[in-house]
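Subject: complex prediction, re-run

Hi both,

The earlier run crashed halfway through, so I resubmitted it with identical inputs.
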Amino acid sequence: MQKGLFITFEGADGCGKSTQMKLLKEFLENKGHEVVITREPGAIGLGERVREILLNYDGEVSNRCESFLFLADRAQNIDIIVKPAIQQGKIVLCDRHTDSTVAYQGYGRGLDINEINKLNNIATNNLKPDLTYLFDVDIETSMQRVGQNKDRMESAGKEFFNKVRHGYLELAKNEPNRIKVIDSTKNIESVFEDVLKEIKNYI
Ligand code: TYD
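This time it finished cleanly. Structure:
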Protein backbone atom coordinates (compact mmCIF):
# COMPACT_ATOMS: atom_id res chain seq x y z
CA MET A 1 0.00 0.00 0.00
CA GLN A 2 1.26 3.45 -0.87
CA LYS A 3 1.88 5.63 2.16
CA GLY A 4 1.38 9.37 2.12
CA LEU A 5 2.46 11.88 4.73
CA PHE A 6 0.54 13.15 7.75
CA ILE A 7 1.59 16.60 8.96
CA THR A 8 -0.10 18.43 11.84
CA PHE A 9 -0.05 22.13 12.74
CA GLU A 10 -0.18 23.08 16.41
CA GLY A 11 0.11 26.13 18.60
CA ALA A 12 -1.83 28.60 20.70
CA ASP A 13 -4.72 30.58 19.26
CA GLY A 14 -3.37 33.37 17.07
CA CYS A 15 -0.02 31.66 16.43
CA GLY A 16 -0.42 31.97 12.65
CA LYS A 17 -0.49 28.25 11.86
CA SER A 18 -3.43 28.45 9.46
CA THR A 19 -1.59 30.96 7.26
CA GLN A 20 1.50 28.74 7.19
CA MET A 21 -0.62 25.72 6.33
CA LYS A 22 -2.03 27.49 3.28
CA LEU A 23 1.47 28.51 2.16
CA LEU A 24 2.77 24.97 2.55
CA LYS A 25 -0.19 23.58 0.63
CA GLU A 26 0.59 25.86 -2.32
CA PHE A 27 4.29 25.01 -2.16
CA LEU A 28 3.65 21.25 -2.14
CA GLU A 29 1.07 21.42 -4.93
CA ASN A 30 3.48 23.41 -7.07
CA LYS A 31 5.94 20.55 -6.59
CA GLY A 32 3.29 18.15 -7.94
CA HIS A 33 2.10 16.57 -4.67
CA GLU A 34 -1.53 15.84 -3.99
CA VAL A 35 -2.46 17.67 -0.80
CA VAL A 36 -5.51 17.32 1.42
CA ILE A 37 -6.20 19.91 4.10
CA THR A 38 -8.31 19.28 7.13
CA ARG A 39 -8.83 20.66 10.62
CA GLU A 40 -9.89 19.73 14.12
CA PRO A 41 -12.44 20.41 15.31
CA GLY A 42 -14.76 20.52 12.34
CA ALA A 43 -13.34 18.88 9.25
CA ILE A 44 -16.65 17.99 7.59
CA GLY A 45 -20.37 17.51 8.15
CA LEU A 46 -20.93 16.15 11.64
CA GLY A 47 -17.59 17.55 12.76
CA GLU A 48 -18.80 21.06 11.82
CA ARG A 49 -21.69 20.64 14.26
CA VAL A 50 -19.38 19.42 17.01
CA ARG A 51 -17.16 22.44 16.33
CA GLU A 52 -20.13 24.75 16.66
CA ILE A 53 -20.89 23.34 20.13
CA LEU A 54 -17.27 23.41 21.25
CA LEU A 55 -16.65 26.99 20.20
CA ASN A 56 -20.04 28.63 20.75
CA TYR A 57 -22.09 26.76 23.33
CA ASP A 58 -22.66 29.22 26.18
CA GLY A 59 -23.90 26.87 28.92
CA GLU A 60 -21.78 24.84 31.31
CA VAL A 61 -19.45 22.27 29.70
CA SER A 62 -17.52 19.85 31.90
CA ASN A 63 -13.85 19.38 31.08
CA ARG A 64 -14.35 15.69 30.39
CA CYS A 65 -17.31 16.36 28.12
CA GLU A 66 -15.23 18.94 26.23
CA SER A 67 -12.44 16.38 25.77
CA PHE A 68 -14.77 13.69 24.47
CA LEU A 69 -16.28 16.08 21.95
CA PHE A 70 -12.83 16.92 20.58
CA LEU A 71 -12.01 13.21 20.51
CA ALA A 72 -15.25 12.27 18.74
CA ASP A 73 -14.53 14.87 16.08
CA ARG A 74 -10.98 13.47 15.78
CA ALA A 75 -12.20 9.92 15.17
CA GLN A 76 -14.43 11.22 12.37
CA ASN A 77 -11.59 13.21 10.81
CA ILE A 78 -9.18 10.26 10.93
CA ASP A 79 -11.64 7.69 9.57
CA ILE A 80 -13.22 9.78 6.83
CA ILE A 81 -10.50 12.16 5.69
CA VAL A 82 -6.98 11.46 6.98
CA LYS A 83 -6.61 7.70 6.72
CA PRO A 84 -8.10 7.26 3.23
CA ALA A 85 -5.97 10.13 1.90
CA ILE A 86 -2.76 8.72 3.37
CA GLN A 87 -3.56 5.29 1.96
CA GLN A 88 -3.84 6.95 -1.45
CA GLY A 89 -0.34 8.40 -1.02
CA LYS A 90 -1.50 11.97 -0.48
CA ILE A 91 -0.03 14.55 1.88
CA VAL A 92 -2.48 15.49 4.63
CA LEU A 93 -2.09 18.83 6.39
CA CYS A 94 -4.19 18.97 9.55
CA ASP A 95 -4.87 22.18 11.49
CA ARG A 96 -4.68 20.92 15.12
CA HIS A 97 -4.70 17.29 16.24
CA THR A 98 -3.84 15.11 19.26
CA ASP A 99 -1.30 17.52 20.77
CA SER A 100 -4.06 20.16 21.09
CA THR A 101 -5.99 17.88 23.44
CA VAL A 102 -2.89 17.20 25.54
CA ALA A 103 -2.01 20.91 25.68
CA TYR A 104 -5.53 22.37 26.15
CA GLN A 105 -7.48 19.70 28.05
CA GLY A 106 -4.44 18.13 29.77
CA TYR A 107 -2.11 20.98 30.69
CA GLY A 108 -4.73 23.73 30.32
CA ARG A 109 -7.82 22.22 31.98
CA GLY A 110 -5.79 19.92 34.23
CA LEU A 111 -7.07 16.52 33.09
CA ASP A 112 -4.82 13.48 33.44
CA ILE A 113 -2.27 13.45 30.58
CA ASN A 114 -1.89 9.65 30.54
CA GLU A 115 -5.64 9.25 30.18
CA ILE A 116 -5.69 11.76 27.34
CA ASN A 117 -2.87 9.92 25.61
CA LYS A 118 -4.84 6.67 25.83
CA LEU A 119 -8.02 8.32 24.53
CA ASN A 120 -6.09 10.00 21.72
CA ASN A 121 -4.74 6.58 20.65
CA ILE A 122 -8.28 5.22 20.56
CA ALA A 123 -9.59 8.21 18.58
CA THR A 124 -6.79 7.96 16.00
CA ASN A 125 -6.62 4.17 15.85
CA ASN A 126 -2.93 4.68 16.65
CA LEU A 127 -2.24 6.64 13.49
CA LYS A 128 0.54 9.11 14.34
CA PRO A 129 1.60 12.27 12.50
CA ASP A 130 4.91 11.95 10.63
CA LEU A 131 5.72 15.57 11.41
CA THR A 132 4.20 18.22 13.67
CA TYR A 133 4.89 21.93 13.50
CA LEU A 134 4.52 23.75 16.79
CA PHE A 135 4.15 27.48 16.15
CA ASP A 136 5.31 29.10 19.33
CA VAL A 137 4.43 32.66 20.32
CA ASP A 138 4.38 34.46 23.66
CA ILE A 139 0.96 34.83 25.24
CA GLU A 140 0.84 38.62 24.75
CA THR A 141 1.36 38.30 20.98
CA SER A 142 -1.12 35.48 20.70
CA MET A 143 -3.79 37.40 22.65
CA GLN A 144 -3.21 40.52 20.60
CA ARG A 145 -3.65 38.55 17.39
CA VAL A 146 -6.88 36.95 18.61
CA GLY A 147 -8.31 40.41 19.45
CA GLN A 148 -11.62 41.11 21.18
CA ASN A 149 -13.86 38.75 19.26
CA LYS A 150 -13.18 35.59 21.27
CA ASP A 151 -14.86 32.17 21.01
CA ARG A 152 -15.55 29.92 24.03
CA MET A 153 -12.04 28.42 24.08
CA GLU A 154 -10.28 31.73 23.46
CA SER A 155 -12.10 33.27 26.42
CA ALA A 156 -10.32 30.97 28.89
CA GLY A 157 -7.86 33.63 30.07
CA LYS A 158 -4.15 34.29 30.30
CA GLU A 159 -3.29 31.75 32.99
CA PHE A 160 -4.92 29.00 30.93
CA PHE A 161 -2.93 29.98 27.84
CA ASN A 162 0.31 30.03 29.80
CA LYS A 163 -0.36 26.43 30.80
CA VAL A 164 -1.23 25.51 27.22
CA ARG A 165 2.01 26.99 25.92
CA HIS A 166 4.05 25.28 28.62
CA GLY A 167 2.30 22.00 27.75
CA TYR A 168 3.11 22.31 24.07
CA LEU A 169 6.78 23.03 24.79
CA GLU A 170 6.96 20.02 27.13
CA LEU A 171 5.51 17.84 24.37
CA ALA A 172 8.13 19.13 21.94
CA LYS A 173 10.90 18.41 24.45
CA ASN A 174 9.67 14.83 24.83
CA GLU A 175 9.30 14.17 21.10
CA PRO A 176 11.92 16.27 19.33
CA ASN A 177 11.99 14.00 16.28
CA ARG A 178 8.32 14.53 15.48
CA ILE A 179 7.57 17.98 16.88
CA LYS A 180 9.48 20.91 15.41
CA VAL A 181 9.17 24.20 17.27
CA ILE A 182 8.91 27.22 14.98
CA ASP A 183 9.43 30.72 16.38
CA SER A 184 6.20 32.29 15.22
CA THR A 185 6.84 35.83 16.46
CA LYS A 186 8.78 36.51 13.23
CA ASN A 187 7.12 37.75 10.03
CA ILE A 188 5.16 35.39 7.78
CA GLU A 189 7.99 34.98 5.21
CA SER A 190 10.65 34.13 7.81
CA VAL A 191 8.36 31.70 9.58
CA PHE A 192 7.64 30.01 6.24
CA GLU A 193 11.39 29.63 5.56
CA ASP A 194 11.62 27.68 8.82
CA VAL A 195 8.62 25.58 7.82
CA LEU A 196 10.30 24.69 4.51
CA LYS A 197 13.58 23.74 6.22
CA GLU A 198 11.76 20.99 8.11
CA ILE A 199 9.69 19.64 5.20
CA LYS A 200 12.82 19.09 3.08
CA ASN A 201 13.57 15.95 5.14
CA TYR A 202 10.24 14.40 4.20
CA ILE A 203 9.67 15.08 0.49
P1 TYD B 1 -10.06 27.28 16.04
O1 TYD B 1 -10.93 28.41 15.65
O2 TYD B 1 -9.84 26.17 15.06
O3 TYD B 1 -8.74 27.87 16.57
P2 TYD B 1 -7.41 28.12 15.82
O4 TYD B 1 -7.76 28.90 14.59
O5 TYD B 1 -6.60 28.85 16.83
O6 TYD B 1 -6.89 26.74 15.53
O7 TYD B 1 -10.63 26.68 17.39
C1 TYD B 1 -10.19 25.54 17.94
C2 TYD B 1 -10.14 25.74 19.42
O8 TYD B 1 -10.30 24.49 20.08
C3 TYD B 1 -8.82 26.31 19.87
O9 TYD B 1 -9.04 27.24 20.91
C4 TYD B 1 -8.10 25.12 20.44
C5 TYD B 1 -9.20 24.24 20.93
N1 TYD B 1 -8.91 22.79 20.94
C6 TYD B 1 -8.86 22.12 22.15
O10 TYD B 1 -9.01 22.73 23.21
N2 TYD B 1 -8.62 20.77 22.14
C7 TYD B 1 -8.47 20.06 20.99
O11 TYD B 1 -8.26 18.82 21.02
C8 TYD B 1 -8.56 20.77 19.74
C9 TYD B 1 -8.41 20.04 18.45
C10 TYD B 1 -8.78 22.14 19.75
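The beta strands are 5-11, 35-39, 91-95, 131-136, 179-183.

- K.
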